[in-house]
Here is the input.
Amino acid sequence: MTQATAIARRVTPRRARRTWSLVGQALAYFLLTTGGLLMLFPFFWMISLSMGTMKDIYRIPPRWIPAQWTLRNYPEAIFVFPLPLYLRNTLVIAAFNVVGTMLSCTAPAYALSRMRWKGRDLLFLLILGTMMIPPQVTLIPMYIIWHRLGVLDTYVPLILPSYLGWAFATFLARQYFTTIPLELEDAARVDGCGYFSTFLRIMLPLSVPLMVTLALFSFVGDWNDFFGPLIYLTTPSKYTLQLGLLSFRGQYITNIPALMAASVLILLPVILIFLFGQTYFIRSVVLSGLKG
Here is the structure.
């Protein structure tokens, strides 16, 4: 066997592996692109409907692109639909809940991750167990409680629970705190800091990605919440954005183009928030899965 033949035999399997690797990557990109386009199709369809007319809605077979583009549905969605009022109501609820989530979840998470006390692990398991309870199970008891407290048709049932703790946010914060080196806490302890001072001066300044992530989860959850306001609010002037979309529904017909235009306007802030906050969001989620 000559030296050239031996080299050729070593190179051929390497080229084959490289070829199969390129084929696998191309197939993966194709599947991911196809899946992404399928998931984006409802969004494009919503935009198409928002720029069409009622004739395009009920056309059979459906026309994916309107025959005549129009933007008149967007002014109608802004001025006929009381968007500023519903936007203010939603922002009030979301702002209070963001603050409540960060206050009520970070401190317990720090205690569960750093402090040693009897029953800590059992309590953490109980907190995780509450995540498995569907909200429909507690709907009727919670409604009875709020009714007896006399706070129905107010924002109290939509805001106060965020100040009583959120299991998922507590779990995420606890996992994040475990990734912070213990040496920083020991150094603060040497300087005379207690648990509370260490939490305020060391943990919170190092937890900016966590805070941004909790704020994103809380804000987007309140921004998209339809079920809560539907159950507890009855006065139209107190409606949120998602509940206010029902105003496009008439007794006999629904103004679908204007409804889709309002939906596009409501969806844009969420998209912008994720675009500008995805760095902190991804960093926090990745770090929270390293330990625990």
Remarks:
- The first helix runs from residue 3 to 50.
- The chain has two domains: 3-50, 74-288.
- The mean pLDDT is 82.
